[in-house]
Every structure is written in C-alpha cells, then in structure tokens.
Design brief:
Elements lengths: L6 H4 E10 L4 H14 L10 H14 L3 E3 L2 E2 L2 E4 L6 E11 L9 E10 L3 H16 L1 H9 L3 H9 L8
Parallel strand pairs: 1-5, 3-6, 4-6
Antiparallel strand pairs: 2-3, 5-6
Helix pairs in contact: 2-3, 5-6
Length: 163
C-alpha cells in the first residue's frame, strides 16, 4: 500500500448519498453504514450495520469528528476487514455534529477500516481531510446536482462537459 491514498480508492461510486436528511449524527452514520452494506461494496458477511454504528459512535464519544467548514469524518475500526471502505454523504439540511468550529455539517465521509492497521486508517483520514479542507472541493461537492457529478468532483475526474 503506497503512502498517499486517493478518494477513488476510498469511496466506490455506489457509495454516494445526495441530500440525505438525518435527525441526528447517529441516524446519519446508520444510513451511511447501511449504504455500504446494501450496495454490496463491502461484501463481508461477518460485519453488520450494528458493528459499524457501534464502533463509529464509540469514536464520536471520544470527541466529535466534525473537523470544521461543514465537514465531518466519522470512522469505525472493525476486525475482519481486508481494506478501507468509505461512504460520502451530502446532508440537507446541515446537521449539528458538535464540530470544532460549531458549524453544522453537510459534507460527511464515513470510513470503515480494519482494526489492525492503524497506519492505513490514519492515511485514509489524512487523504479525506486534505481533500475536504480545500474550499474549491467543498464548493464543487455542495453544487454537484447528481450522485454521478458529486462522485466525479470527489475523485477529481473532470466532467465531460467542462464549462
């Protein structure tokens, strides 16, 4: 595994949620974990939604993963995974995530990582954080009209109809 990961390595095209509504941080993480499992992207029968939700909420209890600028990076570490899986959600309306800057969150990446490879999990978090810290990236993600255009903005591939 090389040092720098890409968003394309972390998030599958089927794991993009556009303008989902959530009444709480827990509901949002549950919906995102459900997407990972129901899409078939994370094809690991021993891991269920409750495992992901429990691990991610335990991490949130240590301190919010709301990193500021309307962005949150919740994550879960779970035994039995062979790689990192990610889900992107644009939340509408924005949700209180107890972020460091107290702004509500509308851009969320949930990462689910093997629990025995903290280096991989930290590299994945660094990649997502680095990309989402960029104002131009956040703006493109907030303006993308469809899941497909959102995914293309996220992985940095130019749109065919570049205007």
């Amino acid at each position: 595994m090389h040092a720098l990961m890409t968003m394309k390595e972390l998030i599958d095209e089927q794991c993009i949620l556009v303008d989902i509504k959530a009444s709480s941080k827990k509901q949002l993480i549950q919906d995102m974990a459900g997407c990972l499992i129901e899409s078939g992207v994370m094809n690991v029968s021993s891991i269920n939604l409750r495992d992901i939700l429990f691990s991610a909420m335990e991490r949130e209890r240590l301190g919010s993963t709301g990193v500021g600028f309307g962005v949150a990076l919740p994550h879960a570490c779970i035994a039995g995974l062979d790689r990192i899986y990610g889900v992107f959600a644009r939340v509408s309306p924005a949700l209180d995530f107890e972020s460091v800057d107290e702004r509500p969150v509308d851009i969320v990446v949930l990462l689910v990582a093997p629990d025995d490879t903290s280096g991989m999990h930290l590299r994945a978090l660094a990649t997502a954080s680095r990309e989402l810290r960029r104002e131009d990236m956040r703006e493109r993600l907030r303006l993308a009209p469809t899941a497909e255009s959102l995914y293309l903005a996220l992985v940095g591939e130019p749109k065919a109809d570049a205007t």
